[in-house]
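Posted in: Protein Modeling Q&A

I'm a second-year student putting together a small comparison for a lab meeting, and my supervisor asked me to include a predicted structure for beta-galactosidase. I've never done this before, so apologies if this is the wrong subforum. The sequence is pasted below exactly as I got it from our records. If anyone can share the structure token output, I'd also love a short note on what stands out.
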Amino acid sequence: MCEPALIATDPSYMSLGQNAEAHVYKAGSLCAAFLANIDNQSDKTVTFNGKAYKLPAWSVSILPDCKNVVLNTAQINSQVASTQMRNLGFSTQASDGSSVEAELASSTWSYAVEPVGITKENAMTKPGLMEQINTTADASDFLWYSTSIIVAGDEPYLNGSQSNLLVNSLGHVLQVFVNGKFAGSSKGSATSSLISLTTPVTLVPGKNKIDLLSATVGLTNYGAFFDLVGAGITGPVKLTGPKGTLDLSSADWTYQIGLRGEDLHLYNPSEASPEWVSDNSYPTNNPLTWYKSKFTTPAGDDPVAIDFTGMGKGEAWVNGQSIGRYWPTNIAPQSGCVNSCNYRGPYSASKCQKKCGQPSQILYHVPRSFLQPGSNDIVLFEQFGGDPSKISFTTKQTESVCAHVSEDHPDQIDSWISPQQKLQRSGPALRLECPKEGQVISSIKFASFGTPSGTCGSYSHGECSSSQALAVAQEACVGVSSCSVPVSAKNFGDPCRGVTKSLVVEAACS
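Accepted answer (user: helix_wrangler)
Welcome! Here is the predicted structure, written out as tokens:
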């Protein structure tokens, strides 16, 4: 039977001292309260309705009956896991159907070259530079901008056969090709998508073709006027030399939405295409290249990911389904990271940053629902250039499950039912549960009651530690799929009177 909802539109406010307050909601005989400590440095003990409550710094306690705390935001009683990514190499299918483990041989990948510039009949030509989002209508990440010039050899923007090409763009990624050859690239930053690229180019007498490929990497969908932000090449686009400049911004530009490979559905191997080439070798580190191969499903039921180390930027498909854009060469800023993270204080986008100077992401999840028994297809579109033989499959394996609960933690939230139903409150308890059905806790790797420190996988005893902790945890947990251990000196003895103690347990499941 459901309990009646508490509906109160006008909560009452009550000061509980400096930087501490209560917000109380009442409706008839029902009452609920939120006690807040907005000091981000100091814990506080406050009095509410004649009863003392401990409030850790920068936290809120929830009292659904205005008496009993069922949750404090700084004392969440939850299990964590210590995991590792196990590298499986790349299990591919050889031509005879047998499974081939470890790194890919050069014969295991087919490839297709994405042509530079305009290849579609529905391309359009207009004077000036068009904004990308409105032009593509989000049909593709990619928009080609193409124009051409005639060079006599004595132009003021030339220094011999050399010139500098300046391109300004709203982002997010820009690649420049001159006469079909790659000439340079640039990308926006974490703080601004704007691009200003100046790259040297070589021009030849006669007709010269300039192709610019603009790519978006996700679009903003929140904030004021986000629909006016725009993307793509806005100009100016100029050729500059020692004696003059040629502004191409108002020239006739031909536009192509998307890639030829997208129109041919190269990402879907079930649709045969003559574009694919199967040779004894395949090109690596070339921009605008499609790759295709087969692999066998990793055994077991652990979560699967692909490590894209060795690739540049692109998108990946497994059995025709996209697992997203990859970009392991996108390096995080060198500064702004912290050695330790504290939840206290106002949130900011730079709070608790880590992995400065490292790739923003190298592992990309492959849902097991995408996989099929035996052989699977993988297709990559590589935009910058990479070597697909270097990618590998990994599985995420849980090594330990851990929990850390103190004597000051609230009781388990399910021990409170309602003011009308009486239930013996047992105090805080540490709970562990194996992550997979059929597993049981096989061993206790670490247990400490007192003042332990550390994180899951690297706990250590403090100066105060009960000698009974390991035996109590083993008795309660080994051989079962889940267990609950009361956090109390009655259970472990009191190794240090007058000190708030914690229980830490790390367990292995099998």
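A couple of things worth pointing out for your meeting: Residues 124-258 form a domain with the Jelly Rolls fold (CATH 2.60.120.260). The CA atoms of residues 142 and 258 lie 5 Å apart.
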